[in-house]
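User: Quick sanity check before I run a bigger batch. Here is a single chain. Can you write out its predicted 3D structure?
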Amino acid sequence: MPALLSPSEALQRGFELAPAGAAVDNPQVESAQRRYGVPLGDYGLLLPRDQICEVTEGIPDCRLPNTPCWFAGVVNQRGNMVPVFDVAAMLDASINAAPESRSWVLIVATRDAAVGLKSGTLPETLQIAEGDRLDYNPAAHSRLYRFVTATFNCDDRLWLEWDMDGFFTAVGESLSTA
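Assistant: Done. Predicted structure follows.
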């Protein structure tokens, strides 16, 4: 094993860069993007890449009377009341979670635009490449179908990129007219 350099020697040493035209073993890996998603049984929902997502464990939710079972209630996020939705229940997703498993709330966005997603698991980290994109939208649930913008097949699961803002705006409008 070669001897380690002192910090001053390391800073004065030159770097050897790879040639500009060096071949990449797998060009698809280079174009892969790190994404985060919430699994919902056979498929999962990708979290928006342009918004902040805060994961919190075990927040006691405050159910509101006379609301659908998929509206988990509200939580207080640093003084802001955030609505929390059980998207799996809303979309009739079959999830095999142990009854004693932890409950997580993923709060997406901040302040007035924040929405909470109740989940039995932490978000998964994915490496999604453009080659994983499918040419069709397999989302079967009528409530979700028109909000899916892209579908990817990654890690033996379908991952749906969705217009989360549009989806929850439509859900809010349906609740206000009911």
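The chain has one domain: 25-177.

User: Great, the batch can go ahead then.
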